[in-house]
Write a structure and sequence with these properties.
It is globular and about 60 Å long. The protein has one domain. A hairpin with a 2-residue loop joins β2 and β3. The longest helix has 37 residues. α1 runs antiparallel to α2 and α2 runs antiparallel to α3. The protein is mostly helical.
Length: 310
């Protein structure tokens, strides 16, 4: 039953992604985009909802119900905190406000946004673990390690998933600015060697009309999420390679690849397509390599069991 649920969700993701590709291809990008929901943005929100559902299904399989619930609570909770304080005080991503493009809002933040923080952080978490450890769940930190070294290790291991999510943002944010999911009418806060300053209008340091501070905020937010999760789940479950766990470990890579492929084929502005392809392609390639090695442990274990019974 679980297998067919995951297959149905993935089939829905592929179908909606296909509709998005068709809509993007025929869409008129030469005129300013409306500030309300359109067929294009409805498809985007549905695509995000299916992404969240697939990641949740995978997390329960790989992390177990308790750890999966902790992961969701930490990422959604911190995501909502960063977004609401960011909208209200411009602390993390510069000064911005969400339009009605992404649907229903709570405290000025579209409901789908904190949920996508979970999905993106989960993709980064699984892919980085496969890259570093050839297994989807992080190993336990040695319990006798001194507190300072244990904290440092948790911080260092939280950097790769944050970088993987940041790579996604390099292609996604210019697209979101183009469809006017949010606006920055007055400027951004900049933190530099001479303290904190506020720059009005278009900031001097920008990336396709998105402030560099926004990318710093993305990295810091995911770093905090991963660090807190590692503190909360100190003894992660050991996940032997089985058909269900191998399948569950593949879905986050597939989702991440799907978004990278979309941004490469129909990314907007067009200049971002190769940036997204390279930045997101590297984690995909190394994640697949780690997944193959994880899959091979299942084949090896099966061969060992067969040899033991003969």
């Amino acid at each position: 039953m679980k297998r067919w649920i995951s297959y149905a969700l993935v089939a829905g993701f592929i179908a909606v992604m296909g509709l998005r590709l068709l809509e993007n291809q025929s869409h008129d990008w030469s005129v300013p985009q409306p500030l309300g929901m359109t067929w294009l943005t409805w498809l985007f929100v549905i695509n995000c909802a299916l992404t969240v559902a697939i990641c949740l299904h995978s997390a329960v399989e790989l992390l177990g119900p308790r750890a999966a619930a902790a992961f969701v609570a930490i990422t959604v909770g911190l995501g909502a905190f960063f977004e609401t304080t960011g909208v209200k005080y411009a602390w993390w991503f510069g000064e911005y406000s969400y339009s009605d493009v992404l649907g229903w809002k709570l405290a000025g933040v579209p409901v789908i946004v904190p949920l996508m923080w979970f999905a993106l952080a989960y993709m980064g978490y699984i892919i980085s673990n496969l890259m570093m450890f050839n297994t989807p769940v992080h190993p336990q930190v040695p319990p006798r390690l001194p507190l300072g070294r244990r904290t440092l290790l948790n911080v260092v291991l939280s950097i790769p998933p944050a970088m993987i999510v940041l790579a996604y943002d390099l292609g996604a944010d210019p697209y979101m600015v183009l469809i006017r999911a949010w606006t920055s009418p007055r400027g951004v806060w900049q933190i530099g060697l001479h303290g904190v300053t506020f720059q009005r209008g278009v900031p001097g340091v920008q990336y396709f009309h998105e402030s560099i501070q926004g990318f710093r905020g993305w990295f810091f937010a995911v770093l905090c999420m991963m660090f807190v999760f590692r503190l909360v789940v100190r003894e992660p479950r050991v996940v032997p390679a089985t058909k269900s766990s191998v399948r569950a470990a593949l879905w986050p890579i597939f989702l991440y690849w799907g978004f990278s492929w979309f941004q490469y084929v129909f990314g907007q502005p067009p200049d971002t397509t190769m940036i997204a392809a390279v930045a997101m392609g590297i984690p995909v390639v190394f994640g697949i390599a780690g997944w193959v090695l994880y899959y091979l442990t299942m084949s090896t274990a099966g061969s060992d069991r067969e040899g033991a019974t003969t």
